[in-house]
Write a structure and sequence with these properties.
By secondary structure, this protein is mainly β. The chain is 5% helix and 34% strand. It has a domain at 4-195: Sandwich (Immunoglobulin-like). The N and C termini lie far apart (68 Å). The structure holds copper (II) ion.
């Protein structure tokens, strides 16, 4: 491991990422490569130099500080093994950038000349492809095709101008199946040169990703083709995914990129929204169509936008219901209608990771105190204000509230519903409505 010291600089944007930031010693000619190991959503990285823009919020992550040198915006990515907490109770051994997986979000402005140093601290060679960016062919990052692979221990330099604004990502084009299955990916946002263009009040970004980490294991099974068991946003699974905190009346954008091996229909409750952008660019207003679910194809990005005028705690999740489940229990036989309680207890004694469905359905499992292997997330979990949420994987909550300050993303707690607006038990009269 490299030497790390506290990241003390107060004059740079890096300090705004908050406590937990550390930096690398040495390599005086290279820009700082700040390390972030926390899985908490970091405060907005306000631009302190370069051209102004409205920063994005990376869900359970943060943005990469830069330095300006001779008109170039310089970033430093370090590809390296990382430990990522997927949710409380489970840590994964992944590969990523600057201490995190996904890597930090790179934010720049249309017209910026960008220089990105990439240092390879992985045990094998790598490269970085800038997905969706229009650039000289030799900067496209396809190992063997447009450049030699970056050898272990070496640093390569990518230089290009950001010709257009939009929503992009970065990932290796080297031993791709392994490196992406291990979590190597990051978000790249190019803001419009004119801050008024496509302006929103809150702009969230995350990558939709998936792993196959067997119960009890820590390292993904990298040869898995389609049968993944851990469905994550920015390598976090419910209840580890932060809530999206929004002020009532805000215009909200959520940008999502899919680097899994299947599509994800992402559904937001309580709102209709428009699809306002893809990795190909902004969708012209007249061509935007209304949706409540947006399907994100493999290797693609989608931006959705809405005005947050409905207060509440609105579920936001992938609509493939097995993607809102955690690993433990995907191989269970259907036992609905079969009373097997005595048998299950004895089987669990013999095989600690054996799990069966309850005779009335899966929700029984929450009451059955099944032992699960260490470092493994239960299949369905989480506690809400009315009881168990019975969720996992790609699920979180958009919390829309009055009176939240601009730039404040602090969890406001659960929604207090106005009297008479919650579904209630029929007891022979219509209690709330009179
Ligand atoms: Cu999904």
């Amino acid at each position: 491991m490299v030497t790390r010291r506290e990241f003390l600089t107060t004059a740079t944007a890096g300090a705004l990422l908050g406590a937990g930031m550390v930096s690398r010693a040495g390599a005086a000619t290279l820009p700082e490569a700040p390390v972030q190991s926390s899985a908490k959503t970091q405060p907005l990285l306000m631009p302190v130099d370069g051209r102004p823009y409205n920063p994005v919020v990376t869900l359970n992550g943060g943005s990469l500080p830069w330095r300006m040198r001779d008109g170039w915006k310089e970033f430093h990515l370090v590809a390296e093994p990382v430990t990522r907490e997927v949710a409380t109770g489970m840590k994964a051994h992944l590969w990523g950038y600057n201490g995190q997986s996904p890597g930090p979000t790179i934010e720049c402005v249309e017209g910026d000349r960008v220089r990105i140093f990439v240092t390879n601290k992985l045990p094998e060679h790598t490269s970085v492809h800038w997905h969706g960016i229009l650039l000289p062919c030799g900067m496209d990052g396809v190992g063997g095709l447009t450049q030699p692979q970056i050898p272990v221990g070496k640093t390569f330099v990518y230089e290009f101008e950001m010709r257009k604004s939009g929503t992009f990502m970065y990932h290796p084009h080297a031993d791709e199946m392994v490196q992406m299955a291990m979590g190597m990916m990051g978000f790249l946002v190019v803001h419009p040169a004119d801050q008024r263009q496509n302006r929103v009040d809150r702009d969230f970004v995350f990558l939709v990703n998936a792993y196959d980490i067997k119960p009890g294991a820590r390292t993904p099974t990298v040869a898995t083709m389609t049968d993944f068991n851990l469905w994550t946003w920015n390598s976090r699974a419910f209840p580890g995914i932060d809530h999206l905190v929004v002020r009532r009346g805000d215009r909200v954008r959520i940008r999502m990129g899919n680097l899994t091996m299947t599509n994800h229909p992402i559904h937001l409750h309580g709102y209709d929204f428009v699809v306002s952008g893809t990795d190909g660019g902004w969708v012209p207003r007249a061509a935007q169509w209304p949706e409540v679910t947006v399907d994100i194809p493999v290797g693609a990005m989608r931006c959705i936008e809405f005005v947050a005028n409905e207060p509440g705690d609105w579920a936001f999740h992938c609509h493939k219901s097995h993607h809102t489940m955690n690993p433990m229990g995907h191989d269970v036989p259907t036992m609905i209608g079969v009373d097997h309680r005595g048998v299950a207890k004895r089987l669990v004694e013999l095989m600690p990771d054996y799990m069966v469905m309850g005779e009335r359905g899966m929700s029984d499992m929450q009451e059955m105190e099944m032992p699960i292997p260490e470092n493994t997330l239960p299949m369905m979990t989480g506690q809400g204000p009315f009881g168990p949420l019975e969720m996992g994987g790609m699920f979180t909550v958009v919390k829309v509230r009055d009176g939240i300050a601009p730039g404040d993303f602090t969890d406001p707690g659960w929604y207090s519903h106005p009297p008479g607006t919650v579904a209630y038990e029929w007891t022979g009269s219509l209690a709330s409505r009179g």
